């Protein structure tokens, strides 16, 4: 019997889109919004929000947060969005919306940027502007690489045993080789921060769960915000659903680029 190709299922796509948690939705919408704004000529979005080493000062620190949201061209925005969505929604589903927002608005954006600026401006004396959501893609791949290594330290290719933590680096080499004008340095900084996060060394920068629970309860975020994911996964479930006598178990629920002047991060 001849093999058949998997068919596109609109119902499954709609189901997946409906399950995307709140912060991931906001990030994807912002990426789309900034891409749409590129069509107007009154305001140069890329020049305003890119991570340009010589343009970063006390008055332009916002660039440390805006550069992952801005892309040059439809294809760049599309590929980065497709790569980011499943990784980010999984992170948010596992950690909660508030913690995800705090980490991605904070250290998981600013630390890769700071590492890039330190090396590009401080050591290489360059001024290559970078932007794109692939910074988050490679941060998350780095963190997932550490998680995979702890569960399964090696995978085999023929007779060779390769540490699973190297898979983000293999992806980095693959993207650099196939995608023109990709910033190897920017991606390398992102993977490095992902490794550090995966090893637990950035936990000190995360808001205490006690404070996050207090904020959630005080503002009733779970009741007011659709697709909100509570920090208290054990109480509210992975997607912030209040438990009932017939509620499914956690296991059941779990089954249910920078682009710059000359280089870019991501496809």
From TrEMBL:
Primary subcellular site in the record, as a coarse category: membrane
Compartments, as annotated in UniProt: Membrane
Keyword annotations: Hydrolase, Membrane, Protease, Transmembrane, Transmembrane helix
Entries under InterPro entries matching the protein: Peptidase_S54_rhomboid_dom (IPR022764), Rhomboid-like_sf (IPR035952)
Broad enzyme group: hydrolase
Domain Peptidase S54 rhomboid: 60-202
Recorded topology in the membrane: Multi-pass membrane protein
GO CC terms, sorted: membrane
The protein, known as: rhomboid protease
Organism encoding this protein: Letharia lupina
């Amino acid at each position: 019997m001849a093999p058949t190709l998997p068919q596109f299922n609109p119902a499954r796509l709609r189901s997946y889109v409906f399950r995307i948690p709140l912060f991931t939705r906001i990030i994807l919408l912002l990426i789309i919004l900034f891409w749409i704004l590129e069509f107007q000529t009154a305001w140069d979005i890329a020049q305003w929000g890119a991570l340009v080493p010589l343009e970063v000062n006390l008055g332009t620190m916002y660039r440390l947060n805006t550069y992952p949201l801005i892309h040059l061209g439809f294809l760049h925005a599309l590929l980065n969005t497709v790569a980011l969505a499943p990784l980010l929604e999984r992170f948010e589903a596992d950690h909660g919306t508030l913690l995800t927002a705090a980490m991605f608005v904070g250290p998981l954006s600013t630390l890769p940027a700071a590492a890039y600026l330190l090396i590009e401006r401080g050591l290489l004396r360059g001024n290559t502007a970078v932007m794109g959501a692939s910074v988050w893609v490679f941060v998350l791949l780095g963190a997932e690489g550490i998680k995979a290594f702890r569960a399964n330290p090696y995978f085999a290719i023929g007779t060779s045993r390769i540490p699973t933590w190297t898979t983000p680096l293999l992806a980095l080499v693959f993207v650099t080789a196939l995608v023109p004008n990709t910033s190897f340095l920017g991606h390398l900084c992102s993977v490095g921060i992902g490794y550090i996060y995966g090893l637990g060394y950035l936990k000190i920068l995360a808001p205490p769960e006690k404070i996050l629970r207090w904020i959630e309860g005080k503002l009733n975020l779970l009741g007011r915000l659709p697709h909100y994911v509570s920090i208290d996964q054990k109480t509210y479930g992975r997607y912030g659903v209040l438990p009932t006598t017939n509620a499914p178990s956690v296991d059941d629920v779990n089954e249910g680029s920078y682009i710059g002047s000359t280089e870019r991060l991501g496809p």
